[in-house]
Amino acid sequence: MITELSTGFPGYDSIIGADNATIGRVLKDHGYATSWFGKNHNTPSFQYSVAGPFDQWPSGMGFDYFYGFMGGETDQWQPYLFQNNRQIFPWIGKPDYNLTTDMADEAISYMGQLNAAAPEQPFFVYYVPGGSHSPHQPKQEWIDKFHGKFDMGWNEMREEIFANQKRLGVIPANAKLTEWPDSLPKWDTLSADEKKLFARQAEVYAGYTAYTDHEIGRVIQQVEDMGKLDNTLIIYIDGDNGTSPEGTLVGTPNQYTSYNGILDFPIAEQLKFYDIWGSAHTYPHMAVAWSWAFDTPFKWTKQIASHFGGTRQGLAISWPNRIKDAGGMRHQFHHVIDIVPTILEATGIQAPEYVNGIKQKPMEGCEHGLHL
């Protein structure tokens, strides 16, 4: 359980016990170089400071190198950023700085140096960007790419997504789209100002998503440039918080307004932020109707456990030397706890019975991983 919602019950107290060694620790004990870039929402908040203790930080959980931010989210222009256990401020003096690019640069540099020093050493990179979790803060050129792309509104976009999913075979041909809820307005009932504002919110979200995907592509390109792509297992989970309801029914240029009970930020006031939405002057989130639409074909959004909206995510896997049906589909049901067994099966490593002399809990998840 994340630290902000922890309780006193075992497994829900924000502590990863010594009887639950991470995949980083298991692989490190078998000769892998292990690194972690980006989001760390695992360390208890009362241990965030440079005073430690660090046993619940990446460096204490089996990762040789950590370059990322502490907590569930961070400002992308001035992030709460750490290199191993030291807070750093790389944006100072760099007006064009954005963590999304910086993190990719750092991962590329790390892998390049590792490859130069020990080209035969296997490596594990846990790469966790902030996008598209709030705040939605891409560089301006990525926002510009989507100008006007969402003027059709959330209802029509939802129909387009649903049709594309059928065309791609992601959902059955006879699937039926879930009903639009009465609690959310339909696009054609909105005023011109509302449509203008809401379209902008989606443009920024889409720009942030595309920007994040582009930078992930640069990291993968580095693996290819090292000549190791064919024998590298890449597990790409497309998820987290972009389609979550913190933005309220009307969105917000600063999501902390909703955290403080302001749930109806006036449209006229929001429009004052139109030209700088997503910039360092904002900390934005989009209206819930967009979140619902981006969760097509499911109902609801993240935080609502009753349905799959925002909870069931896309996943893609690449391993050219072993997976021969590129573009193939897997329709069986899986859960995130199947990821570690998949990695262990792929590497031929047995789940350890003891780590540091401490007996480990049985490994949960599918015994044979994701059936690659």
Keywords:
alpha/beta; 5-stranded mixed beta sheet; two-stranded antiparallel sheet; globular; 372 residues
Explain this structure.
- By secondary structure, the chain is α/β, with parallel strands linked by helices.
- It has a domain at about 140-210 and about 245-315.
- It has nine helices and nine strands.
- The chain has helices spanning about 25-30, 100-115, 140-145, 155-170, 190-225, 255-260, 265-270, 290-295, 340-345; strands spanning about 35-40, 65-70, 80-85, 85-90, 125-130, 235-240, 315-320, 355, 360.
- The chain has a five-stranded mixed β-sheet. Strands 6-7 form a two-stranded antiparallel ribbon. Strands 8-9 form a two-stranded antiparallel sheet.
- Helix 2 packs parallel to helix 5 (about 190-225) and helix 4 runs parallel beside helix 8 (about 290-295).
- The longest helix is centred in the middle third of the chain and has 34 residues, at about 190-225.
- The radius of gyration is 21 Å and the shape is globular.
- The two termini are about 30 Å apart.
- About 30% of the residues are buried.
Q: What's the total helix number?
A: 9
| Major β-sheet strand ordering | 4-3-2-1-5
Q: How would you sum up the global shape?
A: globular
> Helices and strands, in N-to-C order?
HEEEEHEHHHEHHHEHEE
**Share in β-strands:** 5-15%
**What is the count of β-strands?**
9
- Report how far the terminal alpha carbons are from each other: 29 Å
**Uncertain parts:** none
The computed structural class is: alpha/beta
Estimate the mean pLDDT confidence. 94
Main beta-sheet strand count, sense and barrel state: 5 strands, mixed
Question: Using only CA atoms, what is the Rg?
Answer: 21 Å
In helices, the fraction of residues equals: 25-40%
